[in-house]
Design goal:
The chain has 248 residues and is of the alpha/beta class. The protein has 8 helices and 15 strands. It folds into 2 domains: 118 residues, 2-Layer Sandwich (Nucleotidyltransferase, domain 5), CATH 3.30.420.40; 108 residues, 2-Layer Sandwich (Nucleotidyltransferase, domain 5), CATH 3.30.420. It is globular, with a radius of gyration of 17 Å. Bound molecules: beta-D-glucopyranose.
C-alpha cells in the first residue's frame, strides 16, 4: 500500500509517496520552504503544493509536524507560528485537504521509521532517537513501543534549553566549528544517558550524515549510532502513522 508522507520541518516541507510494506520512498522527494510566518493557512497552502506535485488522489495522508500533537490537537509551537497552539490540526487539515490526515510529532515519525526499517529494527530495551535540525526532536522507545511527544530538546540548559545550543540551527546561528558545537552536543548526550539509561542512542536528521566531522569529539558511555534512513525517515514515518497501530 502506498501513502503520501509529508515531513513539515522548521525550515522545509518534504514529501514523497511511501510503500508501507518495504518502507521505501517511491518517487523523487519534493521539497518546498516552510512559509514564514508558518501560520495554519500558509502551511496548508504548502501542503496542497505537495499533494498537487504528486497528483495524490489517495484517501489518506500522514504528516510529521514539529510540535507536540496530542489526540489530533497541536499543543506547542517552537519553530512554527504560535497560531498552531491548541489548533485542531487533524480535523482542519483533513477538511482543507479533502482526505483523512493523520498528524504526529516529526521526531516520533522519523523514530518509528528508523525502528521499523533502520538501525533500531529489532533493538530491545530503551532506544533514544534524536533529530538535530532546526530544533531538537526526540522519540523514545522501550522494546519497540513509542512514548510519544517526549520533547527532550526542551530540557533546560544554561540560560535556555538544549535545542538552542546543540541543534544544527544553533551551530549555524552561533557560527561554531564542529568541534565547538560538539562540546554542547556531548553535554546533551551525556545528560540524556544519565536520565534515561538507554541501550542505544540514534542520531537522526540531516546532520547524521556529517558524523565524521564531529563524532570524534563525543564521549558518551553508551552505544551511539547515526540513523540510516537520513532525510527520508520523517516522510516514511509520517506515512506509517496513517496506520493508527503505530500510535499509542
Ligand atoms: C519541537 C519538537 C520537534 C523538534 C524537531 C522542537 O522545537 O518542540 O516538537 O520535534 O523541534 O522539529
Amino acid at each position: 500500500m502506498e501513502i503520501l508522507g509529508i515531513d513539515v520541518g522548521g525550515t522545509g516541507i518534504k514529501s514523497n509517496i511511501v510503500d508501507l510494506k518495504s518502507g521505501n520512498v517511491v518517487n523523487n522527494r519534493f521539497k518546498v520552504k516552510t512559509p514564514i510566518p508558518a501560520t495554519p493557512d500558509a502551511v496548508m497552502a504548502s501542503l496542497k503544493e505537495s499533494i498537487d506535485n504528486f497528483n495524490w488522489k489517495g484517501q489518506q495522508i500522514g504528516i510529521g509536524f514539529p510540535a507536540v500533537i496530542q489526540n489530533g490537537i497541536c499543543r506547542t509551537a517552537s519553530n512554527i507560528d504560535k497560531a498552531f497552539i491548541n489548533f485542531p490540526i487533524d480535523a482542519a487539515f483533513s477538511e482543507t485537504l479533502g482526505c483523512e490526515v493523520t498528524v504526529i510529532n516529526d521526531a516520533d515519525a522519523a523514530g518509528i521509521a528508523e525502528m521499523t526499517f533502520g538501525k533500531g529494527k529489532g533493538v530491545n530495551g530503551t532506544v533514544v532517537f534524536i533529530t538535530l535540525g532546526t530544533g531538537i526532536g526526540s522519540a523514545i522507545f522501550h522494546n519497540g513501543v513509542l512514548i510519544p511527544n517526549t520533547e527532550m530538546g526542551h530540557l533546560l540548559y544554561k540560560k535556555s534549553i538544549f535545542e538552542k545550543y546543540a541543534s544544527n540551527a544553533a551551530r549555524e546561528r552561533r557560527k561554531l566549528s564542529w568541534k565547538q558545537w560538539a562540546k554542547d552536543l556531548n553535554v546533551y548526550l551525556n545528560h540524556l544517558n544519565l536520565i534515561l539509561t538507554p541501550d542505544l542512542i540514534l542520531i537522526g536528521g540531516g546532520i547524521s550524515k556529517n558524523f565524521d566531522l564531529y563524532g570524534q569529539y563525543l564521549d558518551v558511555p553508551v552505544r551511539l549510532e547515526t540513523a540510516s534512513l537520513l532525510n527520508d525517515a520523517g516522510i516514511i514515518g509520517a506515512a506509517m502513522a496513517t496506520q493508527k497501530n503505530y500510535i499509542l
